[in-house]
Amino acid sequence: MPVIDNLNLSPKTRVIIWEINESLQNLESKVDLSQDSLKLLNQKKSEIHKKQFLAIRNIFKLLSIQDNEVKYDKVGKPIFSQNKILSISHSGNYAAVIISNHPVGIDIEKISDKAMKIKDKYLQIELNYPQELNNQMSLVYWNIKESICKAVGIKGIDFKKNILALPLDINASECKSWYVNNDDIYSFETYFRISKNYTLAFVIKN
To answer: Which of 20, 95, 141, 185 has a CA that sits 20 to 30 A from residue 47's CA?
Structure first.
């Protein structure tokens, strides 16, 4: 099975990570897509984007979520009808979903230097930490900030000014992070992973 991790963080919070190694036909044959999802699938141009979409639906199936139970809000955030909060992410041959009764967010990125190249656009105080910043570390900071952006779920978030992450402890694979906007201050339990082929982070609002 292409599930490479299935984390039960609590009775009400679960994370599934999927490595996409199946054919498009195989992925589609395992799920029963709603008419809305079929329309979305057919709108996707590339095969990898179609595979990512179907991998997410296969994860939904593992979570006992019917495809027609998931809708999307105006900013593209998935909404699940059973008082649960969903967050999804995909990059390259990887897809990930977190589900919880708390506000959550997840982000996965295949290893590249893209986050390092634009670090000044989304990092501020983090650039002053003593630890050396490399491709993997910069991707994890991106993962964390993107996850918080999804968990907060509003437009116009400034990754540099509104989201803060403490220095990363690679051995602990977790840290603290915050969303700050005037009087709105939210803290998040923050978990991350650095793999050979991808980085991942997910956050749970306290």
So the answer is: 141
Computed on alpha carbons and rounded to an integer, the radius of gyration of the chain in Å comes to 17
**Residue of 29, 37, 52, 25 lying closest to 198 (CA atoms):** 52
Q: For residues 52 and 173, what is the distance between their CA atoms, to the nearest angstrom?
A: 26
Q: Positive or negative CA dihedral for 143, 145, 148, 149?
A: negative
Distance, CA of 71 to CA of 68 (rounded, Å): 7
Separation of CA 7 from chain center = 14
- Give the C-alpha separation, 92 to 109, whole Å: 8
Distance CA 175, CA 122 (A): 18
pTM of the model: 0.95
Q: For residues 124-143, b (16+ Cβ closer than 10 Å) or e, as one string?
A: eebeeeeeebeebbbbbbbb
Question: Is-contact 177 163, C-beta < 8 A?
Answer: yes
Burial label for 61, CB within 10 Å (0-12, 13-18, 19+), is middle
pLDDT in tens, 153-191: 988 999 999 999 999 988 889 999 999 999 999 999 999
**The residue to which tokens 């900030």 are assigned:** 145
Place of tokens 């996965």: 108
Block residue for tokens 């990059």: 91
